[in-house]
Design brief:
Helices cover 17% and strands 51% of the residues. It has 133 residues and is of the alpha+beta class.
Length: 133
């Protein structure tokens, strides 16, 4: 084997390795947030349970860092009506829990953003919560 052939083989191997690394990295669209418990009632201290799933493998994503949440009544035309959201510990991998005061019945918008380990971009979700009296 001559040097020119070895160099070509090395360059090809490097290109294939780089292509595999790029293909392995997911995009934010490869993840989805979903409401776990849809039977929510108005009142203080309501628990909102959300799952985060890697859609490529259909597996839960544990240890994501949730850094932004917003809960408002935008679906009811009252975007300015917000309520604080507090993270609550969850023992189930891929499930994230939050506590909020759902002051009135109706549809609430829950916006959430997270960093997933190994991903460069932020994963974002917007969920609609139907809250009963």
């Amino acid at each position: 084997m001559n040097t020119k052939h070895l160099l070509r083989s090395f360059v090809l191997a490097q290109a294939l390795t780089l292509a595999a690394a790029v293909a392995a990295q997911a995009a934010p669209e490869d993840y989805t947030f979903k409401i776990i418990e849809s039977d929510l009632h108005s009142g203080e201290g309501a628990i909102i349970s959300v799952s985060l799933t890697d859609m490529r493998t259909n597996t839960p994503v544990a240890d994501a860092v949730i850094f932004t949440t917003r809960l408002d009544m935008a679906p009811e035309g009252m975007e300015a009506m917000t309520t604080p959201v507090e993270a609550v510990a969850s023992d189930i991998p891929g499930q994230y829990q939050f506590k909020a005061d759902l002051t009135m019945a109706g549809n609430w918008r829950f916006q959430i953003a997270a960093k997933v380990q190994g991903e460069t971009e932020t994963v974002q979700g917007e969920l609609i919560l139907g809250v009963q009296k």
